[in-house]
Amino acid sequence: MTKRIAGPEIERLIQLLARLPGLGPRSARRAALHLIKKKEALLEPLAAAAAEAAARVRVCSVCGNVDTTDPCAICADPRRDGSTIVVVEDVADLWALERAGALSCRYHVLGGTLSPLDGVGPDDLNIAGLVDRVVSAPAERPVSEVIIAVNATVEGQTTAHYLADRLAGTGVRISRLAHGVPVGGELDYLDEGTLAAAISRRSEFG
Fold first, then answer.
1. Domain holding 153: CATH number?
2. Taking phi first (over 0 means left), then psi (-120 to 50 degrees means alpha), and beta for anything else, what does residue 71 get?
3. Residues 37-64, buried b or exposed e (16+ Cβ, 10 A)?
4. How does DSSP classify residue 22?
5. What's the number of domains the chain is made of?
6. Which uninterrupted H or E stretch holds 141?
7. Domain end position, chosen among 16, 32, 56
8. Beta-carbon neighbour count of residue 180 at 10 Å?
9. Which helix (H) or strand (E) holds 204?
10. What per-residue confidence (pLDDT) applies to 181?
11. Strands, E assignment, 35-137
C-alpha cells in the first residue's frame, strides 16, 4: 500500500497533473510542489485561469477549433481566404500551422484519423462537416482548394486517401503538404520554418 505523503487536495492535484502530456507521476509531484511554493504567483492565477477557460471555451461549430466564441476568431475573420481549407487532425496542428504564418485561410479539424484497429471510422470524425462545407459553399465564395495537412503516419495517409475519395467530383483542388514533413512526424512538433516550406511546396494529392 502506497503511503500518503500529503493531504487529499494535494494528492488530487498531483493526480490531475500526471494526466497531462509529458508528465508522469514524478514530474507531476515536482510541478505540484512548485505550484504550491509559488501559491500566490502561480497556483492561484492558474486556478482562476483554468476556471475561466472551463466556463468560456467552446468548440467552433464551423471548423472544430477551440475558442471562447462560436464561430471561432479564425472563422469569423473576414480577411481570411475562404476559398482554401486546410484539413488537420487536431487543434494542436491548427495552432502549429498558424504559428508558421504560411497561409491566411480557413481550417477544418477532423478530431483524429481513421483507425479500424481502434474502432475509429468515418462517422467518428468530422468528415461529413468538411464535405458539407465544400459542397454548400455559396457560388460567389466557393471553396477552390482543400489542403490535406494530416500527420505523415499510416493512419494519416489512410485518412488522406479517404478524404480525397470523398471529395472527388466536387471540383475542388485537393493538395497535400510537401514531403518536407517527415514520415511519422507530427505537425505540432515541427518548427515554423519546416511547416512554412511544406505549405509553400504542397503538391496535388494522388
1. 3.40.1360.10
2. beta
3. eeeeeebeeeeeeeeeeeeeeebbebbb
4. T
5. 2
6. none
7. 56
8. 17
9. strand 203-204
10. 61
11. 58-59, 66-67, 81-88, 105-109
**Other C-beta atoms within 10 Å of 191: how many?**
11
Question: Residue 46 corresponds to which cell in the numbers above?
Answer: 492558474
State the pLDDT at residue 193.
66
Number of H helices, E strands in the chain: 8, 7
Q: Please report, as a single letter, which amino acid is at residue 120.
A: V
Give average pLDDT by consecutive 10-residue segment, the chain, 206 residues. Answer: 73 94 92 95 95 95 96 95 96 92 92 94 96 92 94 88 94 82 69 72 71
Domain at 40, CATH number: 1.10.8.420
One-letter amino acid of 53: A
Does residue 2 sit within a domain?
no
Residues 48 and 78 reside in one and the same domain? no
The total of other beta-carbon atoms located within 10 Å of residue 131's CB is: 14
The cell for 175 is 493538395
DSSP state of 115: B
- Model pTM score: 0.78
Range of the domain at 126: 66-204
What per-residue confidence (pLDDT) applies to 173? Answer: 94
Would you say residue 165 lies in a domain? yes
Q: How would you class 129 by CB atoms within 10 Å of its CB: exposed for 0-12, middle for 13-18, buried for 19 or more?
A: middle
Q: How far is CA 57 from CA 19, 40, 49, 54, in A?
A: 20, 25, 11, 6
Domain for residue 20, yes or no?
Answer: yes
Q: How far apart are CA 199 and CA 94, in angstroms?
A: 13
